[in-house]
Amino acid sequence: MINLYKDEDKALVAVDCIIFGFDNENLKILLIKRDFEPERGKWSLMGGFLKKSETLDEAADRVLRHLTGLNNVYLEQLRGYSKVDRDPVERTLSLAYYALINISDHTEINEEYSAKWFNIDEAPSLIFDHQEMVRYAISRLRYRAQTKPIGFELLPQKFTMKQLQSLYEAILGEKLDKRNFINKINGLDILLKLDEKDMNSSRKGSYLYTFDELKYRAKVSDGFTFKL
Amino acid sequence: MINLYKDEDKALVAVDCIIFGFDNENLKILLIKRDFEPERGKWSLMGGFLKKSETLDEAADRVLRHLTGLNNVYLEQLRGYSKVDRDPVERTLSLAYYALINISDHTEINEEYSAKWFNIDEAPSLIFDHQEMVRYAISRLRYRAQTKPIGFELLPQKFTMKQLQSLYEAILGEKLDKRNFINKINGLDILLKLDEKDMNSSRKGSYLYTFDELKYRAKVSDGFTFKL
DNA sequence: CTTTGAAAGTGTAAAATTCACATTTATTAA
DNA sequence: TTAATAAATGTGAATTTTACACTTTCAAAG
């Protein structure tokens, strides 16, 4: 078969990852300090180029694994960015992804990169259109977290109600009422209350919960939809 | 500056458009019958390749203008599709867009393509991953139509409440209660009720409305958010 | 061993929103 | 004048959301 596409322009394609974490207080993003041109020394998202033999999801996965060593991370594609001169070196398309990782379990970041966690509202300015990507990522995360039980990706497997509430407050950027929050979460009936308590936060101790994924899936296939 | 990216793989990048229309009864998509290889004779979305000098939005716009002659059409990027062999000819990335056009005003489709409107639930099967793109487009449209007043893009400038309700029913795929719908729409206070009536649908005639964009914008900047 | 401090845990009533639902009005064609 | 057809209109019940404050637990301090 002759190649009908041979006269078309090709482009470099990159993926850039907005990596979210949560430290029990603030929503954070992981940024790297570029030690290569262009824009050496500036802060940016972690990214990489798409290879011929992989999908975008695989590329994002690879980039993430390379930086954090983590596999099976929650990743969602956001959208493509395509300003003609967004990268000064060469015409490069970028597809933004966001990732949710559990900081507490995983502190080992590849030292090859000078990576650092920043509160989302204290992050430095970023190269290219990365700022715009972050804004979009936050808005998507806000939406998604109210629609799908993805918040748990940011928490340790066992967590307290307080942690869960603080997480949602950080994601939504607003304070929530404790009793209403707990009532709503319990109403969803997708958490498992453990016998175990976390004794760090108070003398009384607070119960630990886990997300009951199996129960959630069963409920979903019965027509249930998560809605915070 | 030496080109640091020169060893990276490049890819063809396409845009594919899900073009929605509404005929006062059903939500429709405009498909073309391919008269070129690969998959000649099969139905597909209208698409085209991204050129070096344009953004994705511009490419989608160009593709759309070429097919329909329309400018300033509502277009929203959906996401990238990147299965390695999604196009059998060559590795091609595609960015899906959806467009909302007002069928009644514009019937002139470029005859160069054999294009045809299909009800969304009666569309033929499509080439490549276009089917998947359509599904995603519908779900995004459903969400967006409840969040932003984009429905009006699919209607003539002057429309009846009945038309508006039928449109939302078609988008959401469910019947709505007439009185509740009207009460909700009127509650938003973003329509202008005209003195004019549409006398085609009944002896009594039904009032025509227009979307009052200025009022809507003013309300938005006062903190209002459209929510159906 | 009693007191104190600090966070955890718990329920209800008011307000707002959503939902279900049926009759009257206007017009023209018969 | 009557009949037929779609347009227009409001209310009460049910549900959901919101606001709100006191009691419990336990270890550390005295």
UniProtKB/TrEMBL annotation, chains A, B:
PROSITE patterns linked to this entry: NUDIX
One Pfam family this sequence matches: NUDIX
Domain of life: Bacteria
Domain Nudix hydrolase positions: 10-141
Name of protein: DNA mismatch repair protein MutT
